[in-house]
Fold each of these.
Amino acid sequence: MQNVINALRVLEEVAARQPIGVGELARELGLPKSTVQRSLRTLNEAGWIRPAGGEVTRWQVTSKALQIARTTELGLRDAAMPVMEELRQRTGETIHLMVPEGDAVVLIERLETDKPLRIVLPLGIRLPLHASANGKAVLAHLRRPAGTLLGYTGTTITDPDALRAELDGVLARGYADNRGEWRSDIAAVAAAVLGPDGPVASLSVSTPASRMPEPLRAEYGKLVTQAARTLTESLG
Amino acid sequence: MQNVINALRVLEEVAARQPIGVGELARELGLPKSTVQRSLRTLNEAGWIRPAGGEVTRWQVTSKALQIARTTELGLRDAAMPVMEELRQRTGETIHLMVPEGDAVVLIERLETDKPLRIVLPLGIRLPLHASANGKAVLAHLRRPAGTLLGYTGTTITDPDALRAELDGVLARGYADNRGEWRSDIAAVAAAVLGPDGPVASLSVSTPASRMPEPLRAEYGKLVTQAARTLTESLG
DNA sequence: GCACGCTGTGCCGTGTGATGGCACGGAGGT
DNA sequence: ACCTCCGTGCCATCACACGGCACAGCGTGC
């Protein structure tokens, strides 16, 4: 079903560069204009895109995607929000809610710190399992080998045995660390939220590396562990 | 491109009833199993759905939809969140962020009150323009006639002239009211966020009808108007 | 144990409809 | 007046989506 693949590619491209027209899309995707236009027509008919502003030749995506996304992770999100708010209040730092997906964790929701120097990640971003606090929190409970261990910074754990030891430490401690392993100036602690069949999500406290000395890290670790446990219980 | 329409219908149905298998989908959509399965295969290939849990015969949607939704309204959402938080802190009530889309407003984000009796609407829900505070706030600035004025409760404005007068009042006051016009026990005030070409969003304070007597309504109205103005300015 | 309902999967002849090259009209720009 | 970009529409060709059907696996119950 090549045309479905094409239409979905068109949809993604529209989302990424809206508002955008037929010609530019065709050039960007390497598809004939006719094909792109037929896709646009169909997507419009299906209610996924609409003409942007007054112009009928530029397109943008509708809230259809939001309605799809809503029904997915949103029960989790609703349960997590109060817990995340309390956690931010106690730490004063940015809180992330992520879920495992394939060989990565995906950012579902975040609450930012008030402080001027802060971590800002876009919703939907994918972080590596072995080089993020949330990823390691999840990985520790997945009990399966990670894929290839890409190095991002000098502290990224790229040795499988070292990673295994690290994950054992995560299980013993209850929370996972990130010491500049994905971006050298970002520190975090994270704890997994467990469902019946393994980890379903993960909560984290993320700060600039300069704001997480060891004593604070231990305290944040305790708080995030407790928050994850609260969320786990509230999910039944 | 009927197959694209079919595939998108399959995607929506998967999102709505996940985890779900081929047979049930086919029955629900009134499509042959073969067609549904081909769609599932294609959607999986495109990364929009994945097998649920360990089973390879049940499907669920991935975070692809979230990534699409993210790039759409999310600049707005990011700018709005701090304003919404302050507004909730000042009112102690539920705050909604909605955007106009077609003949409705769509709920993009919300912050709930702490109080046990509260309004809870799902993200993505569509409310009528003429029978919701957010809708009327937007409609007042759109300066175009609304569609058919469906009645929802005894107080819903169904007369075009009455609606026009109401909207003039909204422009004069700066904020729109809802006095049980969509659901009889819900009250709200809302103010539009303006872009270069008209309203791009709307903020509201929503409470049970019993918690918004006239003096409080006026106060909330002032606060929501101010918040909307702040957001308008921060969007440049 | 056999029959039956259900699941998901695979095959294949038919003919629909997607493809993509091309031409046209319009809007700016030079 | 030219040239270039835009979006749109047309149409012959043939790939491939369609959907009926058959089959394998599984659990249930006479």
Note: The CA atoms of residues 21 and 58 of chain B lie 5 Å apart.
Amino acid sequence: MHAFDVLGDPVRRRILELLADDERAAGAIAEIIQREFAISQAAVSQHLKVLRDYGFARVRREGARRLYGVETAPLRDIDAWLDRFRHFWEPKLDALATEIARGKKKRKKPA
Amino acid sequence: MHAFDVLGDPVRRRILELLADDERAAGAIAEIIQREFAISQAAVSQHLKVLRDYGFARVRREGARRLYGVETAPLRDIDAWLDRFRHFWEPKLDALATEIARGKKKRKKPA
DNA sequence: GACTTATATAAGCATATACTTAAATAATGC
DNA sequence: GCATTATTTAAGTATATGCTTATATAAGTC
């Protein structure tokens, strides 16, 4: 499955949206998703597995809970793939603006 | 089908890459794709239909040919969806830099 | 107008994936 | 250690999608 396929599923997109702010326990995620999509807890768990398997999420145990967090590498890959089309909707930037805009440089201190 | 599903298919991604530079005739696209993916002309045509149907491509007739071009609205939608994750990999920009970076403003003249 | 070229559509089939229910695994509390 | 809570995994099924071959549509050529 390709990263784009992973994001093709609305449940998985919603889960990632939930994780964009904060880590959340599998159960807390399941509760929200079950309410919004009317699917079983097992189904939610299977989606979490897909997100793990394709590098969109990480888990850590905390007692009986499993805390999920977003992992951005595949999202960055997608962002990079879009680069070849960006000139269609982003104005041409000069070299410096591009550096700033796309964060290619680590800056020591914001001015 | 969601925009992400459309991009989930490697053939469709490749077609869009081909269109990123230039318009191309359906036949020219089919030729390349058939060589690279070993699928039939009909299959390529079906992918072109999906790209049309979901707003990723437009066609115009030119004699017996059909010239395809990329249409970026759904790509921009995806780009916008990624916004909520960008803070993970882009440095925090100040307001002005963000304006410049994301092209929210039409500038009259580059300095 | 028949023939060829360019492209799309139809019909049918195979496979992947998203769900279900049931069961397994693991930590917590008594 | 047994029950409970939290979560994953297994097995089975339905459906969507991507392919195939065959056919339709439309324009260009003689």
Note: Residues 25-27, 30, 41-42, 45-46, 48-49, 63-66 of chain A lie near DNA strand D (CB under 10 Å from a C1').
